[in-house]
Write a structure and sequence with these properties.
With 535 residues, the chain is mainly alpha-helical. It folds into two domains: 36-228, no CATH class; 256-495, no CATH class. It is built from 23 helices and no strands. The chain has helices spanning 16-23, 26-57, 60-75, 77-80, 84-94, 100-128, 133-142, 144-161, 166-189, 193-196, 198-216, 231-264, 267-301, 306-331, 335-343, 351-376, 383-405, 407-433, 441-465, 469-491, 496-500, 508-513, 525-529. Helix 5 (84-94) runs parallel beside helix 13 (267-301), helix 13 runs antiparallel to helix 14 and helix 19 packs antiparallel against helix 20 (469-491). It is globular and about 65 Å long. It is a multi-pass membrane protein. Keywords: Cell membrane, Membrane, Transmembrane, Transmembrane helix.
Length: 535
């Protein structure tokens, strides 16, 4: 019996038809999103706790060094990512299953080489710019994170291509737990810069180990071939070139404020700016959990099924906005108390910048989803121009704002750039795809308005009566979710149940693989005509 025709209870690696079926399944996307969302939020909370411990343990200038080093390493995604992963997903979903093993191996090796290149560039950067010796030493240790994380992400792409991200979610949750435990030990034993960067390295070691074991056992999509075919590198890089340029510019857009502060202001300002970035990362974490499975689904649906493409893009847009606004409602009214509780009174000055950065994080999350849709539909050539416009705005306003407002100016410059990025991305989608009702503008406006009203009311209550911050935050979130949920049901008919979509054996996914419920294969003409819909 072939793997594709095996009964549901059989334990076997997924065959090519089964993998294709999962890639087209809205329910698989929803399940993967739920798993990744839970894992990423759990990991982000633990990461924030670890960061809090480090910020409290280190002197202000060393906390600035710490933030600068990891900001620099984040910038290295310009080199280590290159957008190749998204191009490879398309090959694995739509390409010849017989070539998947070779593509997987070549992709992993390419990412490994890029990781080593990124590490070398990081070290060259801190040496050439004559950074303090502490920064150079910390970069030498923490930079190994890039060497491990870059091929580790390649393994994640294999899981993503077959909608099997639950193992990745478990690996990341486990790794973050280990990291937090080691951070506690480091802070208690030797709270110095060179010691507290080590747990981040061990996080990557744990995560990649779990992924390697799972892939070797056939649970992460195609099992990599033992032989490396370098001929795939050129094709991968050529297809990813426009996306690579665009992503490089977007990464610069996200991190340039931190680096500008490090060179033109002070490392203390870098540390204050980094506080807001930690909170904004929570929004980014939720967005990635939604977008990662959706990437595979959108690639699989376009161009054969534009109706379902539009349907799932709208759902993802609403989900990202609802999650981001929930974070904003929870944080904005009680930002002063939360920052003081987590980081201490020395960081009170970062409150307003943190609020601005969370708003920017929400806009950036929506822009990310739009960029994925452009990539999935083959509009990669538009992405560099969109990103360049947003980066030009950031650079154009950063210097005068930083010189006048320091780290708050950097936060404002980043927000303005995210506005430009989001508007440009959504205009490109509407004008090039020409799908009606692609963006749920009315729904977004209503739930955004509700969030604004709740924030204003909660802020006034907190300032006037001063209840415990946790009560204010939780009450504001519950009220917002209740009101926003009612709006979503009335405008788009969205509930948690129909967000998941129909069961796997009721979707176009199984018909795409030609599998009957009894395990027999068939050829369905409805698939070829695009007549099969789930709405």
């Amino acid at each position: 019996m072939t793997a594709e025709a095996a009964p549901p209870g059989t334990d076997h690696p997924p065959g090519p038809l089964e993998s294709r079926s999962r890639a087209l399944s809205g329910r698989a996307a929803a399940n993967n999103t739920a798993a990744m969302l839970a894992s990423r939020i759990f990991a982000a909370v633990l990461g924030l706790l670890g960061t809090t411990l480090i910020a409290r343990a280190l002197p202000a200038v060393e906390w600035g060094y710490f933030s600068f080093v990891f900001g620099l390493l984040g910038m290295l995604a310009i080199i280590t990512d290159l957008g190749v992963g998204r191009a490879v997903i398309g090959k694995l979903v739509h390409g010849d299953p017989a070539e998947s093993a070779e593509i997987a191996t070549s992709f992993i090796m390419l990412r490994t080489v890029l990781g080593l290149l990124g590490y070398g560039l990081a070290m060259a950067y801190v040496f050439v710019l004559r950074c303090p010796p502490e920064v150079i030493a910390a970069t030498a240790i923490a930079g190994l994170v890039v060497v491990i994380a870059t091929p580790s992400h390649a393994l994640t792409v294999l899981f993503q291509s077959t909608m099997r991200l639950t193992l990745v979610a478990a690996a990341e949750a486990l790794a973050r737990t280990v990291q937090l435990a080691l951070t506690v030990v480091a802070v208690l034993w030797a709270p110095t810069l060179l010691v507290v960067v080590v747990p981040a390295l061990l996080y990557e070691v744990v995560a990649v180990t779990v992924k390697i074991v799972a892939v070797a056992r056939g649970h992460g999509g195609p099992v990599p071939a033992r032989r490396v075919e370098l001929r795939w590198w050129g094709e991968m890089l050529r297809e990813a070139l426009p996306l690579s340029i665009g992503l490089a510019l977007i990464i610069m857009l996200q991190k340039v404020g931190l680096l500008l502060l490090g060179h033109f202001d002070s490392f203390e300002s870098v540390g204050l700016f980094a506080i807001g970035m930690k909170f904004a990362d929570l929004v980014d974490t939720a967005a990635i959990a939604v977008v990662a499975p959706m990437t595979t689904l959108l690639i699989a649906l376009w161009p054969s099924d534009p109706d379902r493409f539009r349907q799932y893009f709208r759902r993802a847009t609403v989900a990202v906005i609802a999650l981001g606004l929930t974070a904003l409602v929870a944080f904005w009214p009680v930002a002063t108390q939360v920052v003081a509780l987590l980081f201490g009174p020395n960081f009170d000055a970062a409150v307003d910048a943190s609020r601005i950065q969370i708003v920017g994080g929400l806009l950036g999350a929506l822009a990310h989803l739009g960029l994925v849709a452009l990539m999935a539909t083959g509009r990669n050539h538009l992405i560099p121009w969109i990103a360049l416009a947003a980066l030009a705005v950031n650079l154009g306003v950063s210097w005068p704002l930083i010189s006048r407002l320091s780290f708050e100016g950097a936060a404002i410059a980043g927000l303005l750039a995210q506005v430009v990025l989001l508007v440009a991305v959504w205009l490109a989608l509407v004008l090039t795809l020409r799908l009606r009702r692609l963006v749920p503008i009315a729904t977004v406006a209503m739930i955004g308005g509700v969030a604004g009203v709740v924030i204003v009311a909660a802020t006034r209550i907190d300032q006037s009566w001063g209840p415990p911050w946790i009560l204010t935050s939780v009450a504001a979130c519950l009220i917002y979710l209740l009101l926003a949920g009612g709006i979503l049901r009335k405008t788009d008919g969205l509930t948690i149940r129909n967000l998941r979509g129909p069961k796997a054996d009721e979707t176009v996914a199984n018909r795409a693989s030609g599998v009957h419920r009894d395990g027999r294969h068939r050829d369905d003409a409805r698939l070829r005509t695009g007549a099969d819909r789930d709405e």
